[in-house]
């Protein structure tokens, strides 16, 4: 029993999460680089001739989004945070800047070009981008102020939001495996697609809120402040 308690379960879970999300992160990163002109571009409607701003926005958001997907679970490792507080602060700043830019570039793309799925997909992804920017700004603001209880809550919201893009693809993969694409179509206007516009992040945020409100706050967050950067 004591031996089981000593197993670093959280580290193992975070490592497994990184391994599971890494193929999508790599796909996004590489797609973004191609969109930015590095390497032969695959066939895609997202990059269009004579539309440099939209192309730049979608490519930038894919490059940064891909990097964030593998970096954000590392930030949650208590071992890394305790042993390497400088890493936590430095990576935290990068994550906040990356999330602000990813959200802003994704929103800019929607406002310039719109999404393939139309109004509801635009709405779902605009809200997603806005929440990501809000969570990043709040996590940074509370860390700067030395208020680590709300910092942790906003950082966890950011974690859920960043992984939302991967979860969106996981939902599609599982749905297509189970139903062969019932209520989904290539225009992303089926009932399943419409639900997905919000279902890859809102239910997870609700679950997180319930968890935050029902679990005691770790005592070290109330008593000690990781030094401010
Ligand atoms: C955080 C990590 C993110 C990653 C890794 C990511 C990755 C990607 C990738 C790879 C695509 C290309 C489509 C595909 O191949 O599936 C894409 C499309 C798109 N993303 Fe993101 N994204 C992220 C966050 C966001 C955010 C925060 C927004 C919000 C504004 C956003 C908005 C969009 C839009 C509007 C499209 C184009 C949809 C379409 O019309 O096909 N993404 N993303």
Radius of gyration: 19 Å
Shape field: globular
Q: Provide the succession of SSEs.
A: HHHHHHHHHH
Question: Strand fraction band?
Answer: under 5%
**Helix percentage range:** over 70%
Q: How many structural units, i.e. domains?
A: 1
List bound small molecules: protoporphyrin IX containing FE
Number of helices: 10
- Largest sheet geometry: none
Based on secondary structure, the structural category is: mainly alpha
**If you average the pLDDT, what whole number results?**
94
| Poorly predicted runs | none
Distance separating the two termini: 39 Å
**Number of beta strands:** 0
Pfam families: DUF2306
InterPro entries: DUF2306_membrane (IPR018750)
Protein name: DUF2306 domain-containing protein
Keywords: Membrane, Transmembrane, Transmembrane helix
Note down, in words, how this protein is organized.
The mean pLDDT is 94. Helices cover 77% and strands 0% of the residues. The chain is built from 10 helices and no strands. It has helices at 2-6, 9-35, 52-75, 78-83, 85-113, 119-144, 148-179, 191-199, 202-214, 219-223. The longest helix has 32 residues, at 148-179. The chain has one domain (2-223). The radius of gyration is 19 Å and the shape is globular. The chain crosses the membrane at residues 12-33, 53-74, 94-113, 125-143, 155-175, 195-212. It comes from Thalassococcus profundi.
Topology diagram in text:
Elements: H1 2-6, H2 9-35, H3 52-75, H4 78-83, H5 85-113, H6 119-144, H7 148-179, H8 191-199, H9 202-214, H10 219-223
Bound molecules: protoporphyrin IX containing FE.
The site of protoporphyrin IX containing FE has 23 residues, from helix 2, helix 3, helix 5, helix 6 and helix 7.
